[in-house]
Fold this sequence. Notes:
Layout: H1 31-47, H2 61-74, H3 82-86, H4 89-98, H5 109-112, H6 116-126
Helix pairs in contact: 1-4
GO molecular function, one term: ATP binding
Domain Protein kinase: 1-118
Protein name: Protein kinase domain-containing protein
Amino acid sequence: xxxxxxxxxxxxxxxxxxxxxxxxxxxxxxxxxxxxxxxxxxxxxxxxxxxxxxxxxxxxxxxxxxxxxxxxxxxxxxxxxxxxxxxxxxxxxxxxxxxxxxxxxxxxxxxxxxxxxxxxxxxxxxxxx
Length: 129
């Protein structure tokens, strides 16, 4: 796994609101904004829809995007989906940690690699014949 050192701050040309951390465009991006996107993508893979899918009730795409950003800024992702409720506690905790609103409360990439959700998967993989 490669990640940029903290002193690098690559410019952002654009982003998709559904995957972007709420702080994008407001403060320098460090690796922890990427951890937000990891949480969004993992939620999508394990639950089957975007964590902010409740925003789809809005009329226009602009309204959907604005609602996604509002929900993200408040940390209000969909925890009522049936598949979310069926996730292993390590999986739901990992996603919840990645989707913390405050960037400094999210793990770095190296810290995330030590989360029980990933360690359990690595241990299971290495024990296979």
